[in-house]
Specification:
single chain; 395 residues; alpha+beta; Helicase, Ruva Protein, domain 3; two-stranded antiparallel sheet; 18 helices; 50% helix; binds calcium ion
Length: 395
């Protein structure tokens, strides 16, 4: 989730079934994605994790014997990251800022692999076809994902109810996000996060915003090390997408540190194996990004726009609800349904290729979802998938 770039977008779409496609961006701004591991595999990893927890903790904290505990089944080149000055500088900074032992980090980076596929995936996409919401939505609002959503909701109904009670985020929105990101944990990503983040932090390909991207991935690499230390896990045990997004909700390490919640209360924050932790963390993320529990209705309403196009500048207000229903009406944007009078709205346009663009008005809660992945297509997919799952459950 959080913060990767529009960049990945199109390429991710081409390559990834789930969250990565979510990363695809059609609108103004952000995010990530991932993927791959079957539930059975995850369960296995969980029990193995329990067995080795003590040793992982030792490894993570002593720094002497950090082992690449997680078997990797993808192509990654052994690369001596320590040859790069930027890596040595990073290690120095982790020492001075966060008290990490140099020798421990050198051992760690000595075991990191260079992931060429991550480099290929973040390269700017070639110009593609015009954006098309109706095409995009068919990838997410489809029978397999809806059926998986029903199973997930049934299995975790209690945790979803609890999240709604604690955070005020309805189950269907949480179900929509986890479904769009990873098909409920089916595609969480197989890369060791340390490998992909080290690769992107120090070998990001040529791109207009390369420096900013590298700084972002360096920061997430630091967050990975901080998270592993804080939670006593081997940093190599963290698996995620090509871009370092972790678990069922595809949180970047920094978002796990900032918004992750141990919602099942077992003392571990595990977004890959604990659906409850994923559910609580998604709800917490949304609330911290402007979700307003007072707005009980739909986060988004179909609208009609006047041919005058006086409303066009309203689309440039960013990912925020800043307009009163009056202001919208004055500018020629009319919600098809009556809007709840309280609250502010923003104009959302969904392009449909050669077909007419759809217009909607959205409140704070829709824009909170866009903070998860800065894309109107993404947020609308979340809303629609959640509704479809709810309807399917109702039978
Ligand atoms: Ca937990």
């Amino acid at each position: 989730m959080k913060a990767i770039l529009p960049l990945f977008a199109a390429l991710a779409l081409a390559l990834a079934p789930a969250g990565q496609a979510a990363a695809a961006k059609e609108t103004p701004a952000r995010s990530v994605a991932s993927k791959a591991s079957k539930p059975a595999k995850a369960a296995k990893a969980k029990s193995a994790g329990k067995k080795t927890k003590a040793s992982r903790k030792r490894a993570a904290t002593s720094g002497k014997a950090v082992q690449a505990a997680t078997r990797i089944d993808y192509d990654g080149e052994h690369h001596n990251f320590l040859e790069w000055e930027a890596v040595r500088t990073f290690i120095d900074e982790m020492g001075t800022r966060h008290g990490f032992e140099r020798a421990a980090l050198e051992t760690l980076f000595g075991q990191a692999r260079f992931i060429d596929s991550a480099v290929q995936l973040v390269k700017p996409a070639p110009p593609g076809k015009p954006k098309n919401w109706q095409v995009y939505r068919t990838r997410f609002i489809e029978p397999i994902r809806i059926a998986a959503g029903v199973r997930f909701w049934d299995e975790h109904a209690q945790a979803l109810e609890r999240a709604e009670a604690v955070y005020g985020v309805p189950a269907e929105v949480i179900v929509g996000i986890i479904g769009v990101e990873t098909i409920y944990g089916r595609d969480t990503g197989k890369f060791r996060v340390l490998d992909t983040l080290a690769t992107l932090a120090f070998a990001y390909p040529e791109a207009p915003n390369r420096a900013g991207r590298m700084a972002f991935f360096r920061s997430e690499l630091a967050n990975t090390l901080l998270f592993a230390r804080e939670h006593g896990v081997d940093p190599f045990s963290l698996l995620g997408s090509f871009a370092g997004a972790i678990g069922m909700p595809q949180f970047m390490p920094g978002s796990i540190l900032d918004y992750g919640v141990d919602f099942d209360g077992d003392g571990q924050l595990d977004l890959r194996n604990s659906a409850e932790d994923a559910i609580g963390s998604v709800a917490n993320f949304l609330v911290k990004h402007g979700w307003n529990p007072e707005h009980k209705g739909s986060p988004v309403y179909p609208a009609e726009v006047s041919p005058s196009r006086a409303w066009e500048p309203l689309r440039e207000r960013g990912l925020a609800a800043t307009l009163t229903p009056e202001e919208l009406r004055t500018a020629g944007v009319e919600s098809v349904e009556a809007l709840p009078p309280q609250g502010l709205y923003g104009v959302v346009d969904l392009q449909n290729g050669a077909d007419p663009t759809e217009y909607w008005v959205a409140n704070d809660n829709f824009f909170a979802i866009t903070k998860y992945n800065r894309s109107y297509f993404y947020a609308m997919s979340v809303v629609e998938l959640g509704r479809a799952v709810r309807a399917a459950r109702a039978g």
